[in-house]
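Researcher: I'd like a candidate sequence for this fold, 131 residues long. If you have to choose between options at a position, lean toward the conservative one.
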């Protein structure tokens, strides 16, 4: 069965780019994330998962990214599908480790990469979503 995940959030500008500094990109981001998981799509979902798990769980990892000249907060990477037990376990280990322990996420996906790990990236939080 296909599951569609959509996130509605509010775009926020924390600081405008400095008009006198060509390098300054300012700081912006997304707040007040509201996630919807559905078996029907009403337009363009953020992510689509196809699974045989009867009641799947997903994790939305919220992180910041950017460069020397600016930062964007509230970016989302979706993980899953998981059984309830595995979803709860991975969600807890992410929260307890501030996103540093992502063991067990690779599974059959040998190309998995945690987007929240990087020089300019920072883990903010994760949200467990029920399918």
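Model: Candidate sequence:
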């Amino acid at each position: 069965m296909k599951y569609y995940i959509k996130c509605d959030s509010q775009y926020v500008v924390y600081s405008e780019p400095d008009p006198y500094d060509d390098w300054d990109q300012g700081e912006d981001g997304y707040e007040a994330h509201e996630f919807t998981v559905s078996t029907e799509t009403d337009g363009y979902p953020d992510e689509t998962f196809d699974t045989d798990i009867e009641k799947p769980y997903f994790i939305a990892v919220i992180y910041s990214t950017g460069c020397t000249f600016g930062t964007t907060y509230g970016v989302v990477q979706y993980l899953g599908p998981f059984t309830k037990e595995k979803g709860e376990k991975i969600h807890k280990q992410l929260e307890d480790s501030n996103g540093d322990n992502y063991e067990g996420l690779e599974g059959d996906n040998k190309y998995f990469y945690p987007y929240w790990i990087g020089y300019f990236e920072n883990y903010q939080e994760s949200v467990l979503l029920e399918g």
